[in-house]
Design goal:
Helix content is about 45%, strand content about 25%. By secondary structure, the protein is an alpha+beta fold. The chain has five domains: about 5-105, PAS domain (Beta-Lactamase), CATH 3.30.450; about 110-285, Beta-Lactamase; about 300-390, Beta-Lactamase, CATH 3.30.450; about 395-495; about 505-650, 2-Layer Sandwich (Heat Shock Protein 90). The strands form five sheets. The protein has a six-stranded antiparallel β-sheet with strand order 8-7-6-11-10-9, sandwiched between helices. A hairpin with a 5-residue loop joins β1 (about 30-35) and β2 (about 40). The radius of gyration is 55 Å and the shape is rod-shaped. The chain starts with a helix and ends in a 14-residue tail after the last strand. Residues about 1-15 have low confidence and may be disordered.
């Protein structure tokens, strides 16, 4: 081994004072060599290598490098010196002094690898992390591996509390758990607080002798040192990075590593914060869209769903994901889909399409919707259409309910007016009817008296009896039939008067078969159509109601059936008992009821007959009478005719029976 370094390294200044001061501070070793490779001058960092255990190996390497140096091209070498780690040597010919200048860097490769690894971790954290805490933890974890034996804490300034809070930590032992607690920004309390307040890094070589009370309270302070650096980005002070470890571990190179990465960590946190804000805004927007009462669809230029949000699940009984990739036309009824897609294709940049369509649920049901669609510019300059579909089924139901209520009010006023008119008309008709009925009764009485007189005359009046008896019989029959008609007219007048008046006290038991037979007999006689009506109504259980009103219903159904066949078809009247109910049906052989008429069949004042041939009240009144009896009036229709079915519940308790108004 050659002579000790101390004997050959001169102490006189070998460079200008400013440069000498700089060389004393840098962590790199700098040596001035003569032409043979012998050290002439060195700075403190180089002297530490040349005076160490591997001095001979370093000197021999420098001599070999000087022998290989040619021209101004530098020569590089690397040595592995055991406990001293790896040393990188770079030698080149000196330009201002005779000989060579060599640069020695201890532990260069590990530090470079650590820097690269940490930077890669920071980059990965910046691109992958969704929150500042996740990004910071990834960076600190890698930095902690480079600073083995130390723990790291990243404090973030919390504007809400005005203090520092732990955003991420790596390796903090349980004995130092206080380092994870929030810290007020108090310059006298802790190292981290002072650094954040002043914005300059501070290093405490011994926690036990630190100025700050917080560090002095941490266990094992004699063997630990701490480093705190401000974390800045974009002109903002975001927090503090705090490193605590063995005093011997925080070398100058490691301090430089932490300091060099603090700004990168600040940029990372700021970037992650912005990403988190953007992510939160997107989540809020997505939540807002998903909670809209409407369905929102984004469509490509070809009308294919590219995104779905809002109330899709409730409206269409499916998820938004299942709609993506489907053509818009498949979500609408056939006619609406074709029409809307064509309109959207012709839609201009600032135009809007608004209309009512029927969307098709996953179960096939139709949902009436209002749609508004417009074209939205996209960064890729592709045609994007956004459409909002609003379910208006409830609104339509309410509108229909309002319309029904309005119609009901109008109809009630009409019926009230008719009731008033009916009362007046009934009064005017009842008086002549009373005279007619009295006269008919008188005629019957006179005929009876005449018959008695003829009988008393005996054989003397035989010629007269032979002439008068046929006339008297015919007169009696005509008077009897006229009396039935008068009674029916009186019953109709009473029904007209009571059309808008509920009379529960008139409900009693009656046998429907007899009432049906009497009604058919009366109707067939009036219309002279006995041969067109086929009646098969057996004896049936009694029902509760008003027999006159029931007969009015049967007569109305017979009249409608007669109009349906035009006087040339057939009418069937049937009765049966089924499931504790009595069913009376009136069927005709007509052409059936048109589909558009069916929904309005029981509405008042609705009629398909010509002017003067129908009031539109018959079925409405009949429906009301049957409902009042606790029954139902329904119909079945088709091309071969129509059947109206009266369904009444069988009587449960005995009530005084009523007689038919026609009997």
């Amino acid at each position: 081994m050659g002579e000790p370094v101390e004997s050959v390294v001169e102490t006189r200044p070998w460079v200008e004072p400013p440069l000498e001061l700089l060389l004393k501070e840098v962590p790199l070793g700098v040596v001035h060599l003569d032409r043979t490779g012998r050290p002439l001058h060195s700075n403190p960092a180089a002297a530490a290598v040349l005076e160490g255990e591997a001095a001979y190996e370093v000197e021999q390497t420098l001599i070999q490098m000087c022998a290989r140096a040619e021209g101004s091209e530098p020569v590089e070498a690397a040595l592995s010196l055991g406990a001293m780690g790896e040393v990188r040597l770079l030698l080149s010919r000196a330009a201002y002094v005779d000989g060579y200048i060599a640069v020695l860097e201890r532990n260069a490769l590990p530090r470079m690898r650590a820097e690269v690894k940490v930077m890669r971790s920071l980059l990965a954290a910046a691109t992958d992390a969704n929150t500042p805490a996740v990004a910071a933890h990834r960076a600190l974890s890698t930095l902690g591996m480079a600073l083995a034996g130390s723990y790291l804490v990243l404090y973030e300034y919390d504007a809400a509390t005005g203090g520092l809070r732990c955003l991420a930590q790596v390796g903090v032992p349980a004995s130092h758990g206080a380092a994870l607690e929030p810290q007020p920004v108090d310059q006298k309390r802790s190292l981290a607080s002072r650094v954040f307040a002043q914005g300059t890094p501070l290093h405490v070589s011994s926690l036990a002798r630190a100025f700050f009370p917080f560090e002095r309270t941490l266990p094992d302070g004699e063997r630990l040192s701490a480093l705190a650096l401000p974390v800045n980005a974009a002109g903002q002070r975001l927090g503090v990075i705090y490193v605590c470890g063995p005093r011997s571990l925080l070398t100058e190179g490691e301090l430089k590593l932490v300091q060099g990465l603090s700004d990168s960590l600040g940029s990372l946190i700021l970037h992650a914060r912005k990403d988190a804000e953007i992510h939160q805004q997107r989540e809020s927007m997505a939540s807002l869209l998903d909670n809209l009462p409407d369905a929102v669809l984004e469509l490509t230029g070809d009308g294919v769903v590219s995104r779905a949000a809002g109330n899709v699940a409730a409206m269409l009984a499916t998820t938004g994901d299942r709609l993506i990739g489907r053509p818009l036309g498949t979500l609408l009824s056939k006619d609406d889909g074709k029409s809307l897609v064509e309109s959207l294709r012709a839609l201009g940049p600032r135009a809007t399409v608004s209309r009512t369509v029927n969307m098709v649920r996953a179960d096939g049901a139709l949902v009436p919707c209002e749609v508004s669609a417009w074209v939205t510019p996209s960064p890729q300059r592709e045609r994007v259409v956004r459409a909002i579909f609003r379910d208006i089924s409830q609104r339509q139901a309410l509108e229909q309910e309002v319309a029904r209520a309005r119609d009901h009010a109008i109809q009630r006023d009409r019926l009230a007016m008719i009731g008033q008119l009916s009362a007046g008309v009934a009064h005017e008709i009842n008086n002549p009817l009373s005279f007619v009925k009295s006269n008919l009764t008188l005629i019957n009485a006179v005929v009876g008296d005449l018959a008695a007189a003829l009988d008393a005359a005996g054989k003397d009046a035989a010629p007269l009896q032979s002439r008068l008896r046929p006339l008297m019989d015919e007169l009696t029959e005509m008077a009897t039939e006229s009396m039935v008609g008068v009674d029916r007219m009186a019953s109709i007048v009473q029904s007209l008067k009571g059309m808008v008046r509920h009379r529960p006290d008139e409900h009693a038991l009656f046998e429907p078969a007899a009432a049906v037979s009497q009604a058919v007999l009366f109707f067939a006689g009036a219309k002279h159509c006995q041969e067109l009506i086929d009646v098969q109504v057996p004896m049936l259980p009694a029902v509760v109601g008003e027999v006159g009103e029931f007969s009015q219903v049967v007569l109305n159904l017979l009249d409608n059936a007669y109009d349906a066949i035009g006087g040339t078809g057939r009418i069937w009247v049937r009765g049966e008992e089924r499931d504790q109910r009595v069913l009376i049906s009136v069927r005709d052989s007509g052409k059936g009821i048109p589909e558009h008429v069916r929904p309005r069949l029981f509405e008042p004042f609705f009629t398909t007959k010509g002017v003067g041939k129908g009031t539109g009240l018959g079925l409405h009144i009949s429906h009301g009478i049957v409902s009042k009896f606790g029954g139902e009036l329904t119909f079945e229709t088709g091309p071969s005719g129509t059947s109206f079915i009266i369904s009444l519940p069988m009587a449960e308790s005995p009530v005084a029976p009523q007689e038919s108004p026609h009997g």
